[in-house]
Write a structure and sequence with these properties.
The chain contains ten helices and eight strands. The protein is of the alpha/beta class. It has an eight-stranded mixed β-sheet, sandwiched between helices. It has a single domain, classed as P-loop containing nucleotide triphosphate hydrolases (Rossmann fold).
């Protein structure tokens, strides 16, 4: 069976836009975004929290019977991107957490489409997450331009495969150069994400992290090291994935 690319996205700290990048990269690859958190989060960001479709709570027991085409067709979508996630509502109404394994679902999806997995930093010691990192065609570490991000990124990188990139996020109050964070973490530098506070309003309005229909076919000038909007970074990373997959 031919496996489509798997890209793991890990934010080394909160509020760095890792989940936003995961959604945009899935769009740039024509793939699926997968939230590995049982209780969701990516669905809230994408504005699909109230949309009908499969959630982890009703997938984990039937993974072996689900066809990729059916799963992708019925999944909630952000623009054209299928979003597979948990459900805060299901979690709140249930007692004990249900049996939960993302790996079989991702394996199923990769038979049909590229998969971008949004991994929680505090779950990287789990069996599923370790297997995903081993399988990944590329792992992206999203880091701030600060010392703490560099230290955490270096520690996380030790758990990742050989194919990884650091994506530095510009943010007020963070003054380290992106190159210095990359060197300190020991991870090659990918695109640098610009600080884009204007994305907050559409997220709060329930339409996801884009002020208009995203253009994922515009990578811009590849030799430029200047910070770029998230959809441009996603377009550039999609080129990297296609080149090495």
């Amino acid at each position: 069976m031919v496996k489509r690319p798997l890209i793991c996205v890990i934010g080394v700290r909160g509020n760095l836009g890792a989940s936003t990048l995961a959604l945009h990269l899935a769009g740039a690859l024509g793939g699926c975004a997968v939230d590995t958190r049982l209780f969701g989060g990516l669905d809230t960001l994408a504005g699909t929290e109230d949309h009908n479709g499969p959630r982890w709570s009703n997938l984990n027991l039937t993974a072996h019977r689900i066809a990729a085409g059916s799963l992708l067709e019925t999944a909630p979508r952000w623009w054209q991107v299928p979003v597979i996630s948990g459900s805060r509502l299901a979690a709140a109404s249930s007692g004990d957490a249900p049996r939960f394994s993302v790996a079989p679902i991702i394996e199923t999806l990769r038979a049909a489409t590229p998969v971008v997995a949004d991994l929680a930093l505090d779950a990287l010691d789990g069996r599923d997450e370790c297997s995903l990192l081993d399988e990944a065609n590329l792992t992206l570490l999203i880091a701030g331009r600060d010392v703490l991000s560099a230290v955490i990124a270096k520690n996380v990188a030790a758990s990742c495969g050989s194919k990884k990139l650091l994506v530095a996020r510009c943010h007020p109050g963070m003054s380290l150069a992106a190159h210095d964070v990359s060197v300190a973490a020991g991870v090659p530098l990918g695109p640098v994400l610009a600080h884009t506070p204007k994305l907050a309003q559409p997220v709060e309005c329930g339409v996801g992290p884009a002020v208009s229909r995203p253009r994922w076919d515009k990578p811009g000038r590849l030799t430029s090291a200047a910070p770029v909007p998230v959809e441009v970074a996603a377009a550039r990373l999609a080129l990297v994935v296609r080149e090495h997959s």
